[in-house]
Amino acid sequence: MSPFDSVLRRFEAVEAACNERLPESLKVGFLTLYAFTTRGEPLVDRVAERGPWRRWHDLGVGVLVACGLGAVGAVGWVAVVALTTDVESTAANDPNNMVAIPGVNEFMPLAAAGYVVLGLLVATLVHEGGHAISLRVDDLPIDEMGVALLFGVLPLAAYVKPTAAVEDAPARARLRLFAAGVANNVAVTLLVLLGFVVVGPDTIVDAYLVYFGWLYTPAAPPTAADVATLGVVGNTLFWVGFLNANLALFNALPIWPLDGGKVFRIVVAETVGDGADAPRSVVVTASALTAAVVLLALFGPSL
């Protein structure tokens, strides 16, 4: 047994011991505390029974495809620029600035921590809520649903875990399921843009300049005073909209196991036949190529 395997087994043993002592609604895994329930279906059913959810999720498949194409096009363009021109590395290429942790990410000052956490919670709740509603609309069971807390404190995301019955569901139901989260994130982003129109269209420009304008000028990263100039409404709208948009675009990428990758696999399988070897090889190749382009776009200027 290698030293790594030994450490991993000890780590898993500690996790197992902790889970034995925790209440039924809590569990730990890889430094993350999960607060969850296995009895959330009745609550989701009350929402799923109202509204044209199936039509919305059918439309969501098109929304996901559009977001995926847009995201691939955007990162592809950035990657080409990084390869063909002498682009200098900026704060946007700093690995620290690619994690959504206020105080670590220079674009997310500690003064904005509350707004960032709120934005993350809204984005993940509406995303996973879309998956949960789609499951129940198509009468598919939910295994568990809950919230993940890094180190037991920092909210990471909401999550919904379906049962294995999803694998046997019709292709259209699975397409709706995987597209529902992205569609909800896009809907929230559009609502936020409408909110900016109501409070004043200049507010969104001001917010962008406060948090990202320093990237293009000799100015320093945003301070608490800069954040305060936007007010509660401006900060809330900005981070809810920004994080919903980013979650939608990221999840729409054709990379397994993201939602876009799952939709891509279903489309390929339905086209060439799920029993063939082609679907897996095509999806793996597409995932690897897309991931490589994303990495090149992010780190290309630093190479």
TrEMBL record:
PANTHER family: MEMBRANE-BOUND TRANSCRIPTION FACTOR SITE-2 PROTEASE, PROTEASE M50 MEMBRANE-BOUND TRANSCRIPTION FACTOR SITE 2 PROTEASE. It comes from Haloarchaeobius iranensis. It is a multi-pass membrane protein. The chain crosses the membrane at residues 59-83, 107-126, 177-199, 237-256, 282-300. Keywords: Membrane, Transmembrane, Transmembrane helix. This is Peptidase family M50. GO terms for cellular component: cytoplasm; endomembrane system; membrane. Residues 116-276 form the Peptidase M50 domain.
